[in-house]
Amino acid sequence: MLINLCRLLQTALLLSLQYAAVTAKMMSKADLHAKQAVAAQRFALEARPASRGTVKNITFTNPRASEFYVDGSTLPEIDFDVGPSWSGLLPISNATNETRQLFFWFFPPGPQGSTEDLIFWTNGGPGCSSLEGLLQENGPLSWSWGQAKATPNEFSWTNLSSLLFIEQPIGTGFSQGEPNIKNEDDLAVQLVGFMQQFLEVFSELKGLNFYVSGESYAGMYVPYIVNHIFENPTALDLVLKGFWISDPVIGWDVIQSELPAVNFVHKYENVFSLNQTFMAQIDAAAERCGYSTYSATHVTFPPKGLLPLPGKSTEGDPGCFLWEEVFDAALLVNPAFDIYRIFDTFPILWDVLGFPGSFEQVQVSPIYFDREDVKRAIHAPVNVTWTECSNINVFPRGDASLPSGYTVLPSIIEKSERSVIVHGLGDYILISEGMTWNGLQGFQTPILNDSFIVDGVGALGNMHSERGLTYFEVALSGHM
Ligand SMILES: *[C@@H]1O[C@H](CO)[C@@H](O)[C@H](O)[C@H]1NC(C)=O
Ligand SMILES: *[C@@H]1O[C@H](CO)[C@@H](O)[C@H](O)[C@H]1NC(C)=O
Ligand SMILES: *[C@@H]1O[C@H](CO)[C@@H](O)[C@H](O)[C@H]1NC(C)=O
Ligand SMILES: *[C@@H]1O[C@H](CO)[C@@H](O)[C@H](O)[C@H]1NC(C)=O
Ligand SMILES: *[C@@H]1O[C@H](CO)[C@@H](O)[C@H](O)[C@H]1NC(C)=O
Ligand SMILES: *[C@@H]1O[C@H](CO)[C@@H](O)[C@H](O)[C@H]1NC(C)=O
Ligand SMILES: *[C@@H]1O[C@H](CO)[C@@H](O)[C@H](O)[C@H]1NC(C)=O
């Protein structure tokens, strides 16, 4: 009887497998395309304007502004009109002997955007170019890794506001001069110095609401810049409203990378696919290094206070560099392993900016911003070899500032009208689990699961807003 039942089940299983195979094969191209269209539509906004309208162009009365004007229909390789924008180099002070200049690219708002607001964006590194954000994150055109050609970015921040990308600090991208900054305060002074020069040329932007944003190492830059502006309220003719930092560096390496690495691997065990021997070995190491006990004791809700160091070092103690051990093991089974987005597998995608994952691109292909025609179109110096992340150290003797989470972050949250921290849950370079917001003893109410809701899609992560800080964790998102 039992045997018969087993046979029956086996037959039923086989039949259902066959059926599944047949239906999969039968799905027509039209049906597949319909599925794809519905899936994409969920991420589209319901109320789409019938016409795209025109960009809110700004007339700058200072004749110098016209030197920087970029005609968006003439950008090499881009087959649509990006609209009016302004780019080039401006000095970081008005001293007559000033030789240091930062490269900027300014975009006025799109048809639905506000002309009252100005968003500043910087990438991190240190030494990585903000033109990466422009092309691959929040700018009006999108040319991401794997994309054969550029497309308009439906989710450009120019839909909200004017947007200013700056390659900073000195030593980054097209920016000119010898880096000499010692810490984040020096960086803020130079950036504010540049902004003063910028506002003299683009004086119609004076008085706007100002939002400072950036990602990764900009978790250091942005809070210190914001703090500097709050402490020198007359330095800039802008109304500072708040800041946004995504996947930010705000704490010690040991806390943001080493400590949470093993828990992170367990959370995404099937993505990493590391062997059982190795898993047992790193679990033992996490115990030995005190990371497991630390997580259970300190990374808890309600928060107990500032996170102490788990060992003796801010980087990690000898034998406890588990982030690096996991990275090596991950590369052994997945040579395309991308620390910035763990879901990537072979092949490594081509990247028009030459930095498609954990490592720089080895395929030979011209990097967009290193083409002479592109440099000429955007008033960039043609004699600079542009790379996404600089080969020289933009802090020649290191960055002497403490992580922003231990210094300026709490007070700038208090002073800002809006403060936003965002984290991509598929990011392995900086891991959200260790990133308990600690300045004000963290959140007093817990972050609820599935609380980040995308219209028409549903839950896509978690969010929480409390005492002036909004925190988002985005599912399926990487570092960029
Ligand atoms: C952004 O603006 C463009 C141009 O008006 C529009 O096509 C697009 O739908 C807007 N995107 C969003 C998310 O509203
Ligand atoms: C935008 O304004 C500038 C002057 O500020 C002008 O030179 C340019 O032609 C305008 N572009 C468009 C597309 O209207
Ligand atoms: C140079 O900039 C400083 C600081 O913004 C300002 O006080 C000074 O008047 C400027 N000098 C000139 C010649 O524009
Ligand atoms: C410009 O000159 C001043 C004083 O003459 C000096 O202190 C400063 O270092 C010089 N700046 C640069 C960038 O050479
Ligand atoms: C397990 O992974 C470790 C770390 O990558 C590696 O050294 C070891 O050879 C692997 N063992 C097996 C059986 O695959
Ligand atoms: C590039 O040219 C500018 C002047 O056009 C010069 O000031 C600068 O030093 C040059 N840079 C390099 C790296 O040659
Ligand atoms: C939230 O989700 C995590 C798994 O992602 C789970 O461990 C936890 O128990 C959930 N919390 C609540 C309150 O349901």
UniProtKB/TrEMBL annotation:
Top-level EC class: hydrolase
Enzyme nomenclature, EC number: 3.4.16.-
Endpoints of the signal sequence: 1-24
InterPro entries assigned to the protein according to its UniProt record, in alphabetical order: AB_hydrolase_fold, Peptidase_S10, Ser_caboxypep_ser_AS
GO biological process, one term: proteolysis
One of the record's GO molecular function terms: serine-type carboxypeptidase activity
Keywords, ordered alphabetically: Carboxypeptidase, Glycoprotein, Hydrolase, Protease, Signal
PROSITE patterns: CARBOXYPEPT_SER_SER (PS00131)
Tagged with keyword Glycoprotein: yes
UniProt family annotation: Belongs to the peptidase S10 family.
Protein name (Swiss-Prot/TrEMBL): Carboxypeptidase
Organism: Hermanssonia centrifuga
